[in-house]
Design brief:
single chain, rod-shaped, 2 domains, alpha+beta, two-stranded antiparallel sheet
């Protein structure tokens, strides 16, 4: 135990001194400070190998540093430590691939963009075998030799070989960088060409779809077009038949009401028979009279005999007298009339029937004798 007069000495307070941040790559440390500016941390930080022109092509991932939402931004000391750790991982990867590489520190924040919104490119070369700082190998001007770069302990031949190897290594390093840049440019150009071909392909597909829709609409309207054509043909035939009927009936009606021949020129019989013959189409003429309009001759037997066909022709030209139509009507058999009704339209036969009816009435004959 201590006496009362003895003063108790207090233990001096031991304060831990914090090591000030000493980042090896100040550019990387400044970059990280800007990335963590403010209270909000980014989503994650990726460290990747970068290739291509402008280092736009991402390579294998070296390291990833994710951050949970709401994480407080690290202090400046922690950012300096993070910068040294990132640089160490990049050096280790570069030493592993044993060739110059370019690494990208990519900062992601999906509240801002769907890709990284900030990046830093770090070019590195493999370090010496002992792991000291530097590029390819440690030493003097040529990167070879002892710790102080002194080559005096070597023979001239050894110094020449070492300098030669140093220059060859530097040349190969530059050529490798140019090769990677060239490959990256070729890949970028091919990607642009593929994108252009994809756009062209999509445009052609869209155009083909539009053409297919047009074809489908055209095919769907084909039935309507055919109906319209048939309706137009029907109206044309109806107008032709009406004109033929009028041309044949006018002289008959005029002479009937006048009680005498009042029409000048050809007789009513000639006009009626001529209008009837002119109203026939080639198929009707061939089926009824056996007359081929293309060959301009009789080629077969029709519904009417050759004598009846010749009498029709002479009546139309006025070579036969009007009374010859009575003999023509008398020579037509019932089966011929039935077959004729199947060939001719009603409007074509109406003028002839009206003419025959008129002649029979003039002679006082019974109406029942007219062929039906």
């Amino acid at each position: 135990m201590m006496s009362e007069g003895t003063h108790r000495r207090e233990r001096p307070e031991i304060r831990k001194s914090l090591q000030p941040p000493d980042p090896q790559n100040h550019s990387l440390a400044d970059f990280l400070e800007k990335a963590f500016a403010g209270d909000q941390c980014p989503e994650k930080i990726e460290v990747r190998q970068m290739f291509g022109a402008g280092c736009k092509q991402k390579g294998p991932m070296v390291e990833e540093y994710p951050y949970k939402p709401g994480t407080k931004a690290p202090s400046k000391e922690m950012l300096g430590k993070l910068a040294n750790e990132v640089l160490r991982r990049c050096h280790e990867d570069c030493d592993g691939v044993k060739r110059p590489m370019r690494y990208g520190v990519l900062v992601y924040d999906y509240h801002r963009r769907d890709d990284y919104f900030r990046r830093l490119i770090i070019p590195l070369s493999p370090r010496g075998v002992d792991g000291a700082d530097g590029d390819s190998l440690d030493g003097g001007e040529d990167g070879f030799g002892g710790d102080d770069g002194d080559l005096s302990g070597m023979s001239p031949r050894e110094r020449f070989l070492l300098r030669f190897l140093g220059q060859a290594y530097s040349h190969n390093e530059k050529m490798s960088e140019q090769f990677h840049d060239s490959i990256g440019a070729i890949i970028d150009r091919q990607e642009r060409r593929i994108e252009q071909q994809d756009r062209t392909h999509d445009a052609l597909i869209e155009k083909n779809f539009r053409l297919l829709e047009i074809v489908e609409r055209s095919l769907s309207l084909e039935h309507e077009r055919k109906q319209l054509e048939k309706w137009t043909d029907l109206k044309v035939h109806a107008a032709t038949d009406a004109l033929t009927m009028v041309r044949g009936l006018v002289p008959v009606i005029a002479n009937h009401f006048a009680g005498r021949e009042v029409m000048e020129g050809p007789s009513a019989v000639a006009l009626a028979v001529k209008s009837f013959i002119e109203s026939l189409d080639p198929e009707q003429a061939l089926a009824a009279f056996g007359y081929d309009s293309e060959k301009n001759k009789y080629t077969q037997d029709g519904v009417f005999s050759r004598e009846q066909s010749a009498l029709f022709s002479r009546l139309a030209t006025g070579e036969a007298p009007d009374e010859a139509i009575d003999a023509l009507v008398a020579s037509i058999k019932p089966e011929q009339m039935i077959a004729a009704r199947q060939i001719f339209r009603e409007a074509q036969l109406l003028p002839l029937l009206a003419l025959v009816q008129n002649r029979f009435e003039k002679k006082g004959a019974a109406t029942s004798t007219v062929p039906q």
